[in-house]
Specification:
Radius of gyration: 25 Å
CATH class of the largest domain: Alpha Beta
Pfam families: NMT1
CATH architecture of the largest domain: 3-Layer(aba) Sandwich
Strand content: 15-25%
Helix content: 40-55%
Domain SsuA/THI5-like: 50-258
Signal peptide: 1-26
Subcellular location: Periplasm
InterPro entries: SsuA/THI5 (IPR015168)
Structural class: alpha/beta
Number of helices: 17
Order of helices and strands: HEHHEHEHEEEHHEHEHEHEHHHHHHH
Length: 336
Protein backbone atom coordinates (compact mmCIF):
# COMPACT_ATOMS: atom_id res chain seq x y z
CA UNK A 1 0.00 0.00 0.00
CA UNK A 2 2.88 2.33 0.95
CA UNK A 3 4.69 1.57 -2.35
CA UNK A 4 1.51 2.24 -4.30
CA UNK A 5 1.08 5.59 -2.46
CA UNK A 6 4.69 6.56 -3.07
CA UNK A 7 4.38 5.66 -6.73
CA UNK A 8 1.17 7.68 -7.01
CA UNK A 9 2.74 10.59 -5.12
CA UNK A 10 5.81 10.60 -7.37
CA UNK A 11 3.58 10.56 -10.43
CA UNK A 12 1.65 13.57 -9.16
CA UNK A 13 4.87 15.40 -8.29
CA UNK A 14 6.34 14.79 -11.76
CA UNK A 15 3.11 15.95 -13.34
CA UNK A 16 3.16 19.11 -11.22
CA UNK A 17 6.81 19.78 -12.09
CA UNK A 18 6.08 19.25 -15.78
CA UNK A 19 3.08 21.57 -15.65
CA UNK A 20 5.18 24.23 -13.88
CA UNK A 21 7.96 23.81 -16.44
CA UNK A 22 5.56 24.20 -19.37
CA UNK A 23 3.93 27.17 -17.68
CA UNK A 24 7.33 28.80 -17.13
CA UNK A 25 8.34 28.17 -20.74
CA UNK A 26 5.05 29.61 -21.89
CA UNK A 27 5.63 32.64 -19.71
CA UNK A 28 9.14 33.14 -21.16
CA UNK A 29 7.80 32.65 -24.67
CA UNK A 30 5.10 35.25 -24.11
CA UNK A 31 7.72 37.69 -22.83
CA UNK A 32 9.76 37.18 -25.99
CA UNK A 33 6.71 37.88 -28.11
CA UNK A 34 5.64 40.95 -26.12
CA UNK A 35 7.02 43.78 -28.25
CA UNK A 36 7.16 47.36 -27.08
CA UNK A 37 4.98 49.61 -29.22
CA UNK A 38 6.58 52.75 -30.65
CA UNK A 39 4.67 55.22 -32.81
CA UNK A 40 6.69 56.87 -35.56
CA UNK A 41 5.52 59.72 -37.83
CA UNK A 42 7.38 60.34 -41.10
CA UNK A 43 7.05 63.74 -42.75
CA UNK A 44 6.49 62.13 -46.17
CA UNK A 45 6.81 58.76 -47.91
CA UNK A 46 10.12 58.86 -49.75
CA UNK A 47 12.84 56.61 -51.18
CA UNK A 48 15.07 59.06 -49.31
CA UNK A 49 14.09 57.13 -46.16
CA UNK A 50 14.96 53.67 -47.51
CA UNK A 51 16.88 52.48 -44.39
CA UNK A 52 13.73 52.99 -42.27
CA UNK A 53 11.64 50.76 -44.53
CA UNK A 54 14.41 48.17 -44.70
CA UNK A 55 14.51 48.01 -40.89
CA UNK A 56 10.77 47.37 -40.89
CA UNK A 57 10.73 44.80 -43.69
CA UNK A 58 13.73 42.80 -42.53
CA UNK A 59 12.48 42.65 -38.95
CA UNK A 60 15.37 44.56 -37.38
CA UNK A 61 13.02 46.48 -35.08
CA UNK A 62 11.37 43.26 -33.92
CA UNK A 63 14.81 41.79 -33.22
CA UNK A 64 15.25 44.70 -30.81
CA UNK A 65 11.88 44.00 -29.20
CA UNK A 66 10.07 46.90 -30.84
CA UNK A 67 6.71 47.02 -32.61
CA UNK A 68 6.81 50.08 -34.88
CA UNK A 69 3.62 51.75 -36.03
CA UNK A 70 4.57 54.01 -38.93
CA UNK A 71 2.32 56.88 -40.02
CA UNK A 72 2.90 59.35 -42.85
CA UNK A 73 1.86 62.83 -41.70
CA UNK A 74 2.59 64.73 -44.95
CA UNK A 75 4.31 67.97 -43.95
CA UNK A 76 6.67 69.33 -41.30
CA UNK A 77 3.97 71.31 -39.50
CA UNK A 78 1.64 68.32 -39.24
CA UNK A 79 4.47 66.03 -38.15
CA UNK A 80 5.57 68.39 -35.40
CA UNK A 81 2.00 68.89 -34.24
CA UNK A 82 1.63 65.12 -33.90
CA UNK A 83 4.83 64.96 -31.84
CA UNK A 84 4.06 67.88 -29.55
CA UNK A 85 0.47 66.77 -28.94
CA UNK A 86 1.48 63.23 -28.03
CA UNK A 87 0.07 61.72 -31.21
CA UNK A 88 3.40 60.07 -31.95
CA UNK A 89 6.50 59.11 -29.96
CA UNK A 90 9.19 59.72 -32.59
CA UNK A 91 9.17 61.97 -35.64
CA UNK A 92 11.23 61.73 -38.82
CA UNK A 93 11.37 65.28 -40.14
CA UNK A 94 13.73 68.10 -41.06
CA UNK A 95 15.99 69.13 -38.17
CA UNK A 96 14.98 72.77 -38.67
CA UNK A 97 11.56 72.02 -37.12
CA UNK A 98 13.16 71.39 -33.72
CA UNK A 99 14.71 74.87 -33.92
CA UNK A 100 11.35 76.45 -34.75
CA UNK A 101 9.84 74.77 -31.68
CA UNK A 102 12.76 75.90 -29.51
CA UNK A 103 12.31 79.50 -30.70
CA UNK A 104 8.74 79.33 -29.37
CA UNK A 105 10.18 78.56 -25.93
CA UNK A 106 8.62 75.12 -25.62
CA UNK A 107 8.61 73.77 -22.07
CA UNK A 108 9.43 70.29 -23.40
CA UNK A 109 11.88 70.85 -26.31
CA UNK A 110 12.22 68.48 -29.22
CA UNK A 111 15.59 66.70 -29.34
CA UNK A 112 17.36 65.36 -32.45
CA UNK A 113 18.84 61.98 -31.54
CA UNK A 114 19.71 60.31 -34.86
CA UNK A 115 20.36 61.50 -38.40
CA UNK A 116 18.86 59.43 -41.23
CA UNK A 117 19.89 61.49 -44.25
CA UNK A 118 23.11 63.47 -44.70
CA UNK A 119 22.40 65.50 -47.85
CA UNK A 120 19.54 67.30 -49.50
CA UNK A 121 17.30 64.82 -51.33
CA UNK A 122 15.92 66.96 -54.13
CA UNK A 123 16.82 67.32 -57.79
CA UNK A 124 16.40 70.15 -60.23
CA UNK A 125 14.06 69.12 -63.03
CA UNK A 126 13.75 71.08 -66.29
CA UNK A 127 10.73 71.03 -68.57
CA UNK A 128 13.05 70.94 -71.57
CA UNK A 129 15.96 68.59 -72.13
CA UNK A 130 19.27 70.37 -71.52
CA UNK A 131 22.47 68.69 -72.71
CA UNK A 132 24.90 71.11 -71.08
CA UNK A 133 23.26 72.56 -68.00
CA UNK A 134 24.65 75.52 -66.08
CA UNK A 135 22.98 77.13 -63.07
CA UNK A 136 22.80 80.58 -64.64
CA UNK A 137 20.19 79.12 -67.01
CA UNK A 138 17.67 79.63 -64.18
CA UNK A 139 17.88 83.40 -64.44
CA UNK A 140 14.70 84.87 -65.88
CA UNK A 141 12.80 81.59 -65.59
CA UNK A 142 9.79 80.45 -63.57
CA UNK A 143 10.87 78.15 -60.73
CA UNK A 144 8.38 76.00 -58.80
CA UNK A 145 10.01 75.59 -55.41
CA UNK A 146 9.02 74.17 -52.05
CA UNK A 147 7.32 75.56 -48.94
CA UNK A 148 8.91 78.66 -47.41
CA UNK A 149 10.90 77.82 -44.29
CA UNK A 150 11.06 74.10 -45.11
CA UNK A 151 14.36 72.29 -45.55
CA UNK A 152 14.01 71.64 -49.33
CA UNK A 153 13.37 75.31 -50.08
CA UNK A 154 16.09 76.62 -47.76
CA UNK A 155 18.74 74.29 -49.18
CA UNK A 156 17.53 75.09 -52.68
CA UNK A 157 18.01 78.81 -52.06
CA UNK A 158 21.39 78.14 -50.42
CA UNK A 159 22.60 76.31 -53.55
CA UNK A 160 21.26 78.91 -55.97
CA UNK A 161 22.93 81.73 -54.06
CA UNK A 162 26.17 79.76 -54.09
CA UNK A 163 25.96 79.94 -57.88
CA UNK A 164 25.26 83.67 -57.85
CA UNK A 165 21.48 83.42 -58.27
CA UNK A 166 19.01 85.21 -56.02
CA UNK A 167 15.86 83.06 -56.42
CA UNK A 168 13.61 85.92 -55.30
CA UNK A 169 15.07 88.43 -57.76
CA UNK A 170 16.51 86.38 -60.63
CA UNK A 171 13.60 83.93 -60.99
CA UNK A 172 9.85 84.00 -60.68
CA UNK A 173 9.70 81.81 -57.57
CA UNK A 174 6.44 79.99 -56.79
CA UNK A 175 6.05 78.65 -53.24
CA UNK A 176 2.31 78.42 -52.64
CA UNK A 177 1.85 74.78 -53.67
CA UNK A 178 1.35 72.14 -50.98
CA UNK A 179 4.31 69.72 -50.74
CA UNK A 180 2.32 66.67 -51.84
CA UNK A 181 1.00 68.46 -54.95
CA UNK A 182 4.18 70.07 -56.32
CA UNK A 183 4.84 67.35 -58.93
CA UNK A 184 1.26 67.37 -60.24
CA UNK A 185 1.22 71.16 -60.35
CA UNK A 186 4.40 71.15 -62.42
CA UNK A 187 3.17 68.41 -64.76
CA UNK A 188 -0.01 70.35 -65.53
CA UNK A 189 1.61 73.80 -65.49
CA UNK A 190 4.07 75.83 -67.52
CA UNK A 191 6.93 76.46 -65.06
CA UNK A 192 10.46 76.07 -66.42
CA UNK A 193 12.03 74.30 -63.44
CA UNK A 194 10.92 72.41 -60.34
CA UNK A 195 12.59 70.94 -57.26
CA UNK A 196 11.59 67.28 -56.68
CA UNK A 197 12.49 64.23 -54.62
CA UNK A 198 13.01 60.73 -55.97
CA UNK A 199 11.39 58.64 -57.36
CA UNK A 200 9.09 61.46 -58.50
CA UNK A 201 11.90 63.17 -60.42
CA UNK A 202 12.85 59.99 -62.30
CA UNK A 203 9.20 59.10 -62.95
CA UNK A 204 8.60 62.51 -64.48
CA UNK A 205 11.68 62.05 -66.66
CA UNK A 206 10.53 58.62 -67.80
CA UNK A 207 7.11 60.02 -68.73
CA UNK A 208 8.75 62.82 -70.73
CA UNK A 209 7.32 65.53 -68.48
CA UNK A 210 10.69 66.77 -67.24
CA UNK A 211 14.43 66.09 -67.16
CA UNK A 212 16.79 65.86 -64.19
CA UNK A 213 19.58 68.39 -64.77
CA UNK A 214 21.22 68.74 -61.33
CA UNK A 215 21.30 67.43 -57.75
CA UNK A 216 20.82 69.81 -54.85
CA UNK A 217 22.30 67.12 -52.62
CA UNK A 218 25.61 67.10 -54.48
CA UNK A 219 25.72 70.89 -54.55
CA UNK A 220 24.90 71.48 -50.89
CA UNK A 221 27.27 68.89 -49.44
CA UNK A 222 26.71 67.29 -46.04
CA UNK A 223 23.58 68.55 -44.30
CA UNK A 224 21.64 66.96 -41.40
CA UNK A 225 18.60 67.01 -43.64
CA UNK A 226 16.21 64.56 -41.97
CA UNK A 227 16.53 63.38 -38.38
CA UNK A 228 14.69 61.29 -35.86
CA UNK A 229 13.54 63.40 -32.94
CA UNK A 230 11.43 63.09 -29.82
CA UNK A 231 10.39 65.26 -26.92
CA UNK A 232 13.02 65.60 -24.23
CA UNK A 233 10.70 64.00 -21.67
CA UNK A 234 10.19 60.93 -23.87
CA UNK A 235 13.93 60.39 -24.33
CA UNK A 236 14.54 60.69 -20.58
CA UNK A 237 11.88 58.09 -19.84
CA UNK A 238 12.54 55.79 -22.81
CA UNK A 239 16.26 56.13 -23.51
CA UNK A 240 16.72 52.35 -23.82
CA UNK A 241 13.91 52.25 -26.36
CA UNK A 242 15.59 54.98 -28.40
CA UNK A 243 18.88 53.05 -28.30
CA UNK A 244 17.17 49.90 -29.58
CA UNK A 245 15.42 51.94 -32.25
CA UNK A 246 18.71 53.35 -33.53
CA UNK A 247 20.46 49.99 -33.35
CA UNK A 248 17.88 48.52 -35.73
CA UNK A 249 18.37 51.44 -38.12
CA UNK A 250 22.15 51.05 -38.05
CA UNK A 251 21.72 47.42 -39.09
CA UNK A 252 19.44 48.51 -41.92
CA UNK A 253 21.83 51.24 -43.04
CA UNK A 254 24.72 48.80 -43.21
CA UNK A 255 22.60 46.35 -45.21
CA UNK A 256 21.57 49.08 -47.67
CA UNK A 257 25.19 50.05 -48.25
CA UNK A 258 26.33 46.46 -48.82
CA UNK A 259 23.41 45.19 -50.93
CA UNK A 260 22.76 45.71 -54.65
CA UNK A 261 20.19 48.37 -55.44
CA UNK A 262 17.72 45.98 -57.09
CA UNK A 263 17.53 43.76 -53.99
CA UNK A 264 17.07 46.83 -51.80
CA UNK A 265 14.34 48.05 -54.14
CA UNK A 266 12.47 44.74 -53.97
CA UNK A 267 12.67 44.88 -50.17
CA UNK A 268 11.07 48.33 -49.91
CA UNK A 269 8.63 47.78 -52.80
CA UNK A 270 5.62 47.36 -50.42
CA UNK A 271 6.02 51.03 -49.48
CA UNK A 272 5.97 52.18 -53.11
CA UNK A 273 3.31 50.03 -54.78
CA UNK A 274 2.83 52.49 -57.65
CA UNK A 275 6.54 52.61 -58.53
CA UNK A 276 8.25 49.92 -60.57
CA UNK A 277 11.24 48.10 -59.10
CA UNK A 278 13.72 49.35 -61.69
CA UNK A 279 12.71 52.94 -60.97
CA UNK A 280 13.12 52.38 -57.24
CA UNK A 281 16.52 50.77 -57.79
CA UNK A 282 17.82 53.70 -59.84
CA UNK A 283 16.54 56.17 -57.24
CA UNK A 284 18.15 54.25 -54.39
CA UNK A 285 21.44 54.04 -56.29
CA UNK A 286 21.29 57.77 -57.03
CA UNK A 287 20.88 58.58 -53.35
CA UNK A 288 23.47 56.06 -52.24
CA UNK A 289 26.09 57.27 -54.72
CA UNK A 290 25.85 60.86 -53.48
CA UNK A 291 26.04 59.84 -49.81
CA UNK A 292 22.48 60.72 -48.91
CA UNK A 293 22.01 57.88 -46.42
CA UNK A 294 23.87 58.75 -43.22
CA UNK A 295 26.60 56.19 -42.58
CA UNK A 296 26.78 56.53 -38.78
CA UNK A 297 23.56 58.43 -37.93
CA UNK A 298 25.39 60.95 -35.73
CA UNK A 299 24.34 64.56 -36.10
CA UNK A 300 27.67 66.36 -35.70
CA UNK A 301 28.36 69.87 -34.42
CA UNK A 302 29.60 70.91 -37.86
CA UNK A 303 26.37 69.59 -39.41
CA UNK A 304 24.34 71.46 -36.82
CA UNK A 305 26.20 74.67 -37.64
CA UNK A 306 25.66 74.10 -41.37
CA UNK A 307 21.91 73.75 -41.02
CA UNK A 308 21.75 76.97 -39.02
CA UNK A 309 23.87 78.79 -41.62
CA UNK A 310 21.36 77.68 -44.25
CA UNK A 311 18.46 78.91 -42.10
CA UNK A 312 20.13 82.27 -41.54
CA UNK A 313 20.76 82.62 -45.27
CA UNK A 314 17.05 82.01 -45.86
CA UNK A 315 16.11 84.61 -43.25
CA UNK A 316 14.54 82.02 -40.94
CA UNK A 317 16.96 82.27 -38.00
CA UNK A 318 18.47 85.23 -36.19
CA UNK A 319 20.15 83.60 -33.18
CA UNK A 320 22.24 80.43 -33.16
CA UNK A 321 20.93 77.57 -31.00
CA UNK A 322 23.70 75.69 -29.12
CA UNK A 323 24.30 72.10 -30.25
CA UNK A 324 23.80 70.66 -26.75
CA UNK A 325 20.37 72.26 -26.43
CA UNK A 326 18.69 70.26 -29.20
CA UNK A 327 20.99 67.37 -30.09
CA UNK A 328 21.62 64.18 -28.12
CA UNK A 329 24.35 62.17 -29.85
CA UNK A 330 24.83 59.77 -26.93
CA UNK A 331 21.92 57.55 -28.02
CA UNK A 332 23.61 56.64 -31.33
CA UNK A 333 26.91 56.05 -29.53
CA UNK A 334 25.21 53.69 -27.09
CA UNK A 335 23.47 51.90 -29.96
CA UNK A 336 26.82 51.23 -31.60
Amino acid sequence: MMKKWLKSGCTLLLAALLAFSLSACGSIGSKKKALQKVRVAEVTRSVFYTPLYVALEKGYFKEEGLDIKLTTTWGGDKTMTALLSGGTDIALVGSETSIYVYKQKAADPVINFAQLTATDGTFLVSRKKIDHFSWDMLKGTTFLGQRKGGMPQMVGEFVLKKHGIDPHKDTKLIQNIDFANVANAYASGTEDFVQLFEPTASTMEKEGKGYIVASFGKESGEVPYTTFMAKQSYLKEHEKTAVKFVRALLKAGKWVQETDAETVAKTVQPYFKDTKTDMLASSIERYRSQGSFSSDMILTKSGWNTIQDIMKEAGELDHTVPYDKLVNASIVKKAK
